[in-house]
UniProtKB/TrEMBL annotation:
The lineage of its organism: Bacteria, Bacillati, Actinomycetota, Actinomycetes, Kitasatosporales. Its EC number is 2.7.13.3. It is found in: Cell membrane. Coiled coil: none annotated. One of its GO terms (biological process) is phosphorelay signal transduction system. This is histidine kinase. CDD domains: HAMP, HATPase, HisKA.
């Protein structure tokens, strides 16, 4: 059954592939259609002209021969009849006229001595009759013309083509000058019509073959032209996917070959540029990591000294000279800030190097956030709206880093009270959404796209602040490594809102728990 389904899917995929190549926006289809229209127009025009020329030639040749023979018979035989012939004479003369080489039917009409109309036909009683002659033709034949220098005869030969029961006929008539019989001729043009129909069929078949040939020619031309273009498109997609070693095979000296060479040169230059940038980026990350590690040793000693100085400042004995007390406090605060900066740089370096790992545990989200707030003495300034019992499998330390940065940032730059809400989301309740909202002025619209950028300062007048500009960047990286996201927006009721979305179970992303060493500092981001 699996093989059957696979075969059906393969057939459907193949049909979709064919249709995608022949979609209406496809250059291949447009090329085939244009070739076909041009060939069809040319073939139809040529066939129409050829049919019209042959039709006129065949009909004119037959018509001229018949009319010439009929006129000759009228002069020789009908002209020899008396002025008032009998029916037998008309019948005999009509038979003689019809026995000519053209084999047409003849009807002779005359007036007897007593004034009656007398008829003679070449066939039987049901043969050619006057009813088959158009009235307009009868009128033209019997109408006497004025004789002058331009017109020597009072009567002329007239003819007309008619169709009876689908069969074409040539009807002609003439009258004997100086009285006598009036003759009519009927000639079937069915053999000529059959010949013309055969010619039309032949021209139609030739047109169809020309259309098919043009379509095949267009397909061959499209394959020749579009195959290199298709290869170029595939190579461009691969290049866009990061496969910078993609190259095109160059053959020929035409424009498409020049395009392939240009693509290869551009890909080679891009690969070199990306390699240079990757090398510089790797060297930069290595420099930051090495610098951070090198700074930790002297910072440990400096931190120990500053802790002693801080204890002296807090002591009641007043052992620190009041003159140098501000400088000592400045050293203590800046040392603490430098220590946080080094820890944050090391954390950022782990994210960039891809060595940051998760240490997952089943935690109660509300309890974890409460512990984060309590550890930093923020209980009086933060309003927590979270039900107990919302469990999630995540890294507690990294959640603590995220919440410390978000809440600390809201307290420092947004304004109290800060409200933290926790709820479940998703169709199956498989997400945890944590929103941190302050009651400050909000984030300027031009700053919103950059709040998660590293070292971004929203105010140029405050280039120096207690934060390093890495807090929100580290928070969003911690959210991303959990498979979640962190967004920032302004609340319609005022203040900024940071929304953290995390999956409730990301155990499939967990790796070894010993990859992260030491805590990452938590700080507020400067807006």
């Amino acid at each position: 059954m699996t093989d059957a389904h696979g075969g059906i899917r393969g057939w459907v995929a193949g049909r979709k592939g064919v249709w995608s190549r022949l979609r209406f926006t496809s250059l291949r289809l447009r090329l085939v259609v244009v070739f076909g229209l041009v060939a069809l127009t040319a073939a139809v025009s040529a066939s129409g002209i050829a049919y019209w020329l042959n039709r006129e030639a065949v009909l004119t040749r037959t018509q001229d021969a018949v009319l010439r023979d009929f006129q000759q018979e009228m002069q020789n035989r009908a002209g020899a009849l008396p002025e008032h012939p009998s029916q037998d004479e008309l019948q005999h003369t009509a038979g003689q006229m019809a026995s000519s080489s053209q084999r047409f039917s003849v009807l002779l009409v005359a007036e007897s001595a007593d004034g009656r109309a007398v008829y003679g036909t070449s066939g039987a009683l049901d043969g050619f009759s006057l009813r088959e002659v158009p009235r307009a033709l009868q009128k033209a034949v019997n109408e006497e013309q004025k004789v002058d220098s331009a017109n020597k005869y009072p009567y002329h030969l007239y003819w007309q083509r008619v169709v009876d029961d689908g069969t074409p006929y040539l009807v002609a008539g003439s009258r004997v000058i100086n009285g006598g019989a009036t003759g009519y001729m009927l000639k079937s043009l069915e053999p000529e019509a059959k010949d013309l129909n055969s010619l039309a069929w032949s021209l139609g078949i030739a047109t169809a073959l020309a259309l098919i040939g043009s379509a095949l020619l267009a397909q061959a031309a499209a394959t020749t032209v579009l195959k290199p273009v298709h290869r170029l498109g595939v190579a461009a997609r691969r290049l866009g996917e990061g496969r910078l070693d993609t190259r095109l095979r160059v053959s020929g000296t035409d424009e498409l070959a020049d395009l392939s060479r240009t693509f290869n040169l551009a890909a080679e230059a891009l690969e070199k540029r990306v390699a240079d940038m990757a090398g510089r980026d790797e060297a930069s990350r290595r420099f930051v990591a090495d610098m951070s590690h090198e700074l930790r040793t002297p910072l440990t000693a400096i931190t120990a000294v500053t802790e002693v100085l801080e204890d002296e400042l807090e002591a009641e004995s007043g052992s620190v000279d009041p003159m140098i007390e501000p400088a000592v406090r400045l050293v203590v605060s800046e040392t603490r800030r430098l220590n946080n900066l080094v820890e944050n740089l090391m954390e950022v370096t782990r994210f960039d190097a891809g060595t940051a790992r998760l240490v997952l545990d089943d935690v109660d989200v509300a309890d974890q956030i409460t512990a984060c707030i309590d550890a930093r003495a923020w209980l009086d300034a933060v309003d927590l709206d979270a039900e107990r019992g919302i469990h999630a499998r995540l890294d507690p330390r990294r959640l603590d880093v995220i919440m410390a940065n978000l809440i600390g940032n809201a307290l420092k730059h947004g304004g109290s009270p800060v409200r933290v809400s926790v709820r479940m989301a998703g169709e199956r309740g498989d997400q945890v959404v944590i929103a941190v909202r302050d009651h400050g002025p909000g984030i300027p619209e031009d700053v919103l796209p950059h709040v998660f950028d590293r070292f971004y300062k929203a105010s140029a007048s405050r280039p120096r602040s207690d934060g390093s500009g890495l807090g929100l960047s580290i928070a969003t990286e911690n959210a991303r490594i959990h498979g979640g996201e962190l967004t920032a927006a302004n609340s319609p009721e005022g203040g900024a809102v940071f929304t953290l979305r995390l999956p409730r179970d990301i155990s499939e992303l967990a790796e070894e728990p010993d990859a992260v060493d030491g805590p990452a500092g938590a700080e507020g981001e400067v807006r």
